[in-house]
């Protein structure tokens, strides 16, 4: 079984902040309504798009309604799209002279853009 992409986006934004890439999961526990998952990640080099070295594991709960049989390809693509959106946001802010840094929350960067009187569609 695979995790639906929207659920991973909602629950695992730290994957993006650490530039990690989803590498699969294992079901390690189960209740009546949810699965306990061990999510595997790989370290992701945002400059050349290659994975580098070992990743880490994160434990999370996932409702059974957020699991599906064929979501792996959708999930990987959604995570890559999310990284691209974040990189574009960061580049826009830096190009306009704002003081932002890698691994700032997208919400914080958007607030800085609005405070500077600029508009960006994230």
Description of the molecule:
By secondary structure, the chain is an alpha+beta fold. The protein has one domain. Helices cover 37% and strands 26% of the residues. It has 4 helices and 5 strands; from the N terminus they run βααββββαα. It has helices at 5-11, 14-17, 72-95, 106-115; strands spanning 2-3, 20-30, 34-43, 57-63, 67-68. The protein has a 3-stranded antiparallel β-sheet with strand order 2-3-4. Strands 1-5 form a two-stranded antiparallel sheet. A hairpin with a 3-residue loop joins β2 (20-30) and β3. The longest helix is centred in the last third of the chain and has 24 residues, at 72-95.
Number of domains: 1
Largest sheet: 3 strands, antiparallel
Which spans of ≥5 residues are poorly predicted at pLDDT below 50? none
Average pLDDT figure: 78
**Percent of residues in beta strands?**
25-35%
Radius of gyration: 16 Å
Question: What general outline do the C-alpha atoms trace?
Answer: elongated
**If helices are DSSP runs of H or I spanning 4 or more residues, what is the number of helices?**
4
Based on helices, strands and strand pairing, what is the structural class?
A: alpha+beta
Helix content: 25-40%
Strand order of the largest sheet: 2-3-4
Distance between the termini: 31 Å
Number of strands: 5
What series of H and E elements makes up the topology?
EHHEEEEHH
